[in-house]
Specification:
- Residues 1-31 are annotated as: Disordered.
- This is Sugar-phosphatase.
- One of its GO terms (molecular function) is magnesium ion binding.
- The structure is a single chain.
- With 300 residues, the protein is α/β, with parallel strands linked by helices.
- It has helices spanning 55-67, 80-85, 120-130, 153-162, 193-203, 226-236, 254-259, 271-276, 288-296; strands spanning 13-15, 21-23, 37-40, 71-75, 97-100, 105-108, 111-115, 136-141, 144-148, 166-169, 182-186, 208-213, 216-220, 244-248, 262-266, 279-281.
- It folds into two domains: 13-115 and 225-296, HAD superfamily/HAD-like (Rossmann fold), CATH 3.40.50.1000; 120-220, 2-Layer Sandwich (Hypothetical Protein, Haloacid Dehalogenase-like Hydrolase, Chain: A, domain 2).
- It has nine helices and 16 strands.
- The strands form three sheets. Strands 7-6-5-4-3-14-15-16 form an eight-stranded mixed β-sheet, with helices on both faces. Strands 10-9-8-11-13-12 form a six-stranded mixed β-sheet, with helices on both faces. The chain has a two-stranded antiparallel sheet with strand order 1-2.
- Helix 3 (120-130) runs antiparallel to helix 5 (193-203).
- The longest helix has 13 residues, at 55-67.
- The radius of gyration is 19 Å and the shape is globular.
- The termini are far apart.
């Protein structure tokens, strides 16, 4: 074990070298002959609005993918436990690989092969800033997540949906000394640049803020993202980037879409995600991932 989103115009548009939007083609109709891995982001990509997907349809696809020797990977900023809950092993749906906490934690064939944690000093500095009446947050790591008891009921429900393996702490400082890979911040009013600047200055580059929505910011370990986690899996399986396809919709999917042989932006994708992709698929609410996979893995 190693220890260690900006929507603009309509679907199907990329960005060329001059910054002009261009139309992205659909993925190849037939399965690429060198394809060995399919990686999917979850929220806004694999999952419909409301965090659902067509389970019977995917169950059949999963069997055909396995028979074809193609691995299935889930890559998300969410907690490993939450991601696995969507794919019950008893139903034959367990992913071959899981990249969680924005690439900080990687699971391969049911075994953790990467755990990345923020330096303790950086964690202490971040918590000192957040303890001064800042946004709601949850700190997540290899041993679970840590949530302040003082958070509002609404924020508890939101944060624990994405981090179901958690424990309460009485004070922010109680998180010091724990193994933390990511701190997810939420403020329904949005984040002022002055606050983000103050946070970044306190962290000194040991953790970096990544905007994941108008009201959401993740503090992550630099160099760790979905692409880096996917690369850990590919190396573990002795596969190359060109043998992987990835689906995503947001700016934090861009590195992953750019690094694989078949980067596919959803129809609802942000401008940043489309700029990184080679192809486009229907939107998440139109089951775009399943539409592409059914073309690649047709029923007999």
């Amino acid at each position: 074990m190693l220890q260690d989103g900006i929507p603009t115009s309509g679907p199907g548009l990329g960005v060329d070298v001059d910054g002009e939007e261009t139309t992205l083609p659909a993925p190849p109709v037939g399965r690429p002959p060198d394809l060995r891995v399919v990686a999917v982001d979850m929220d806004g990509t694999f999952l419909r609005t409301g965090s659902t997907y067509d389970r019977p349809r995917f169950t059949a696809l999963r069997r055909r993918m396995r028979a074809a020797g193609v691995r299935f990977v889930v890559a998300s900023g969410n907690q490993e436990a939450q991601l696995l809950s969507f794919f019950p092993a008893a139903d034959g749906l367990a992913p071959d690989g899981v990249v969680s906490d924005n690439g900080a934690i990687v699971l391969a064939d049911g075994v953790r092969i990467l755990e990345t944690c923020a330096p303790m000093g950086a964690l202490e500095r971040a918590l000192a800033v957040l303890d001064g009446g800042g946004p709601a947050f949850i700190a997540s790591g290899p041993d679970g997540a840590y949530l302040r008891q003082a958070e509002s009921p609404e924020m508890r429900e939101l944060l624990t949906f994405y981090h179901p393996d958690y424990r309460y702490v009485a004070r922010t400082t109680d998180i010091n000394g724990q193994r933390v890979s990511k701190i997810a911040l939420v403020d329904e009013r949005g984040f002022e640049q002055a606050f983000l600047d103050r946070l970044q200055a306190a962290l000194g580059g040991a953790m970096v803020p990544v905007v994941s929505g108008h009201d959401s910011v993740d503090l992550i370990v630099p160099g760790r993202h979905k692409a880096s986690g996917l690369e850990v899996l590919l190396a573990h399986w002795r596969l190359g980037r060109g043998q992987a396809a990835a689906f995503g919709d947001s700016s934090n999917d861009a590195e992953m879409l750019a690094c694989v042989g078949y980067g596919i932006a959803m129809g609802n994708a942000s401008r940043v995600a489309r700029a990184a992709a080679r192809f486009t698929a229907p939107s998440n609410d139109d089951d775009g991932v399943l539409e592409v996979l059914e073309a690649w893995f047709p029923a007999d």
